[in-house]
Amino acid sequence: MNKKIIFTILLAILAVTGQGQEKSGLDLCLRDEATGEWIIGLFDDYAIYDCDYWEYAEVGKDRVVLTKNGQRKEILLKKNSTVIDGVKHKTSVLTTRFLPDYPIRDENAFDGTLLDKEQEATLRVVHRSGKPDILVSTNFKHLVKDETTSYNAQSDSLGRYETKIPLVGQTASMIYTEATPNIYRQDNWLWIPYVITPGDKLLFFIDDVSGRIYVMGKTARMTNEFLNYPLYGYDMDYRERKSMDFKSFIKKNDKEQKSIAQRRESILAKHPLLSKRYKDYTEGMMMSFFAHNLGQLRFNRSKVKREEIIDEAKRSNLFNLDAPYLVLERYDNFIDDICDAAVEKHCVISSGVPFLQNILKKAREGQLQLSTEEIKLIESELPAEAALEVPSSAHLDSVGVWIEGFYLTDTLQTMFNNRPDLVNEILNYYDQKETEAIDSLLCLPPMLREITFARRIQKRLIHDVKPLEDYEMQSLLKNVTHPYLLGEVLATNDQLIAARKASEAIVTPDPRPLAELTEGEDIFRKIVEPYRGHYIYLDVWGTWCAPCRDMMRYVPQMKEQLKDLDIVYLYLANHSDEEAWKTAIAQYHLTGENCVHYNLPDKQQSALERYIGINGYPTYKIVTPNGNLLPTFAPHPDHPDAIRYMIEELKEDLK
């Protein structure tokens, strides 16, 4: 290549670089008058089109050329119109706080399709001020796992925020930025709802200079309409709800729902072109808030009967709302609660006779191996089983308790204790009873039923910290067939299988030196003595504790960020099955030379917790290098910077 050609190429590169730094001197948000959409934003440093940021390649009078990743868009600005790549749009300049009413009808419903696998959606937020470090927050609940992922980040040097969100269907969430409360506020609500689709883009323009919010994207219309006409559901106070009987709850809810419904009807009457998605979303918001409150009544056991909750859910048609599952706020909580209410109603404490008859039937059909002596023993005990006094559902409701299961005579209890496979038969029997309860009492639509069963089996996996038994796997494969739902549960099961195998190599301190100790302080001193000279981060948890498990997700990152500090991580497990305990240690990567685990007998653990001062789980505390337990609570693992600050402050104090 000769020098002339090289020089020409360099000049071309410099020209393109210069074009990318063009300023437009513009400050325009343009609306397509035919569709009502915000189609383009032209600002001094950048442009916004098709939910993307564009630079200026050329700027002239009434004409600009945008560029992005090698693409070019020619924009001609004329009076009352804008031409984008040769396509003319009748436009007007947006100056209102929110987008004006759309001029055409939109009868498109939300898409309830559930994909076979996740696709990423792109969410962008741009602040007009261009200020950096503006906090933006949005959250997404997992469809199967009982987890919420928070997408929290600060805006970049131009006031922008971007995140990729894996989705399996059209999903609703809410967004908040530190700049929005000055522009949007509805009663006590500061979060703005939106719906986003897998593979699509959505962009929020937060004009924190002039006080405007516009949204761009295929599902933006509902949000733009909601900003003008916000309508949330009735958010009942927890303490108020807890004190109510069923009639009081319905009376209070009907009053509040009627007020919200009247407001909604007034909005729809005055603005007849509001979209079907706005109508379905606002109605779904009202109903899902009610559903959530209704489901939570199952905890008012001495005041509310479970059949009252179930009957009201059916009467209100709460299983067939127009908005799909993923678009409904708090609906997942309701589904979990109503299924538990159905199980509690159907599987309440009862006679063991039906179960024992089922065992004998399986033995006759060759599905279960029982000796002749065992069969005779069961048959001889059936009259005694039938004679056992079983408390009625009404009695259990009146005293505010619920017990699942059945009685076995002492003789049969001994027999079952010696046959683990028969214990599994009890669990299998109740798994079938739970399925029967949900199907007979709720009659869920097919996809909602699959989601429900996937969530229930997933919760069981996480709570028990053990892989599925054969009967549980059969139940899963029978009741969950959708590839995504099934795949998520099987992935968790595989992780637990791997964790259980890895747990075989875990070595924990020998508890025998503690065997004779009964006082909490003595146990504590004995445990921490080997680690004098180190700071101890104390974590009191249990495999059964959901908030404890949630915090465990942050432990590897916390340990990495604090690896320069001399910390020993001491984990004290509360009332946890030995096998589940070690599996959880492996599953959450709570291993390493500086990690110490104890799973003491209940009496010793209780004495130790009384000394430490435990009033909830998880509890975190710091022990100083001289072995003193600080009275204050330590920050949680998801705040490693706060842990560092606390330890460094202690170092200063100990100098």
Question: What would you say this structure looks like, in words?
Answer:
With 655 residues, the protein is of the alpha+beta class. It contains 21 helices and 21 strands. The radius of gyration is 31 Å and the shape is globular. Mean pLDDT is 91; it is low at 1-20.
Secondary structure topology:
Layout lengths: L2 H18 L7 E5 L5 E5 L4 E3 L2 E9 L2 E6 L2 E8 L2 E4 L2 E7 L25 E9 L7 E7 L6 E3 L2 E2 L5 E8 L3 E7 L14 E5 L4 E7 L4 E6 L2 H9 L9 H5 L3 H25 L5 H21 L9 H10 L15 H16 L6 H12 L7 H16 L5 H6 L11 H8 L2 H22 L4 H19 L5 H10 L3 H21 L16 H9 L6 E7 L4 H7 L2 H7 L5 E7 L4 H10 L7 E4 L3 H11 L6 E5 L16 H15 L1
Parallel strand pairs: 9-16, 18-19, 19-20
Antiparallel strand pairs: 1-2, 1-8, 2-3, 3-4, 4-5, 5-6, 6-7, 7-8, 9-13, 10-11, 10-12, 10-14, 14-15, 16-17, 18-21
Helix pairs in contact: 2-5, 4-5, 5-7, 6-7, 7-12, 8-9, 13-15, 15-19, 16-20
